[in-house]
Amino acid sequence: MEKLLSRFLDYVTTDTQSDPYSKTTPSTEKQWTLAKKLVLELHQIGLQEVSIDENAYIMATLPANTDKKVPTIGFISHMDTSPDFSGKNVKPQLVKDYDGKDIVLNKTKGIVLSPDYFEDLLQYKGQTLITTDGNTLLGADDKAGIAEIITAMEYLAQHPEIKHGKIRVAFTPDEEIGRGAHKFDVKKFGADWAYTMDGSQVGELEYENFNAASAKIIVKGKSVHPGYAKNKMVNAIAIANEFLSLLPPREVPEHTTGMEGFFHVHKIKGEIENAQIDMIIRDHDAIHFQARKELLSNISEKLTQKHGDCITVEIEDQYRNMREKVEPVFHIVEIAQEAMESLGIEPIIKPIRGGTDGSQLSFMGLPCPNIFAGGHNFHGKYEYVPLESMEKAVKVIVKICELTASQIK
Ligand SMILES: [Zn+2]
C-alpha cells in the first residue's frame, strides 16, 4: 500500500490529455509516455502476459493461485485525462490531516477549494487530500484507478495466502473522448466479467447508465425578398424555432435528475435557407428512449404537413444502458457489493447520468459495472482525491478477487 501515493503522483504528473479532434489512436502521442511506463511497472510487480498493442491498449495477467475452476475477472481504467481542462504541469498538493476548512489552491489567483461550496469535503476530515494547484485538473479521473489496480495486483502477488483465480487488468487510452472501448479486444482480454475503476466517491457501484443518441434536425427554407415574400418565403429559422417549441420544456438537463431523461439542444445555427438544430437524447428506460426518438419524427411530420417538405431528422445511436447485459449476471454486482460491505463500506448504487466505457464493453460481451476510484470534481481545477479513498478501492479490488474464488466450491 505504501507505493499507492507515489504511483499516483507519478501518473498525474505525466500529461495524457486526449483530443476529440484527432483521428489517431491514441488520440495524442503523449499518452504513449504513461503507457510505456505502465508496461514496465506491470513487469516489475511480476504480472504475466503483459502486452501493449499498436493503439496503446495495455493488458496483463495475474495468474490464478488455486486449482479451483474460478471465473477470470478483470479490472480496467483509463490513462487519458479530459480535454475540458489542462493536464499539463500538474502540481499535486498534499493536504495532510484535513481540518475541514477552506483549502487555498492558488494564493496568487485566489482559487479556494471550500466545503461551503463542495460539502463532500467534510466527510474527509482528518484524511490526506490530494488537490491541484489551481492551474490544471488533477487526473484522479482515472489515474487513481490505475494506481489502485496496480497496487492491488502487487498486493495479491505478495500475498499468496489469498487464493484467487486468473485476474486480467487493462489500461485504455481515449476514454474521455468516448473511444476508450472502441478498439478494446474483448476476446484477447478473455475475462468472464470486469469492473471499470472509474467512479467517484467511496462506495459508488454503478451498473445502469443512459441510453444515448444524438439528433440533427435540418430545415430547408426558401429565401425571397422580404417585401414580396407573402405566401412565398419559407424561413428555416422560424420553422426550427417552432420545432423547439414543440419539445417538452421541462425535459432538459437543468430540470431533470435521477432516472429522468431529457432532450438537450446544444447547438443551433440558421439562415433563411438553412437551419440546423443539434441535440442529444438521454433516457435510462429503453421504451421511453424510443418514445423520445419517435417524438422527433412526429414533430417533423406535423411541421411537414404545415409547411411542406422541409425537415430532415437524423438520429444516431451512441450507447445503451448496460443494465440489460448486467442483470442476467447480477452476481457480479453482488460480489462487489459484498466486498464493500465486508470492508465496512456502504455501497452507493445509483444510475449513472452519462455513459461509461463499461456500457460499451458490456454490449461487446464483457459485462462491466463501474466501481469508485475515490476522486471528486472531475475535469477541472477543483478535482481532488482522498488517499484513504484510494486505499479503500485497493482493498475492494483485493476482496473481489478473493470472494470470486471463495464462492466456488
Ligand atoms: Zn474517467
Write structural notes for this entry.
The chain is of the alpha+beta class. It has 2 domains: 3-208 and 322-406, Aminopeptidase (3-Layer(aba) Sandwich), CATH 3.40.630.10; 211-319, Alpha-Beta Plaits, CATH 3.30.70. The protein contains 10 helices and 17 strands. An 8-stranded mixed beta sheet has the order 1-2-8-3-9-16-10-15, with helices on one face. α1 (3-12) packs antiparallel against α3, α3 (140-158) packs across α10 and α8 (331-342) packs across α10 (387-406). The longest helix has 22 residues, at 286-307. It is globular. The model has no long low-confidence stretch (mean pLDDT 96).
* Poorly predicted segments: none
CATH architecture of the largest domain: 3-Layer(aba) Sandwich
Over the alpha carbons, how many angstroms does the gyration radius reach? 24 Å
- How many domains? 2
Along the chain, the helix and strand elements come as: HHEEEEEEEHEHEEEHEEHEHHEHEEH
Annotated CATH topology of the largest domain:
Aminopeptidase
Report mean pLDDT, rounded to a whole number: 96
As laid out across the biggest beta sheet, the strand order is: 1-2-8-3-9-16-10-15
* Small molecules (ligands, ions, cofactors) in the structure: zinc ion
CATH C-level class of the largest domain: Alpha Beta
User: How big a fraction of the residues is strand?
Assistant: 15-25%
Number of strands: 17
Give the number of helices: 10
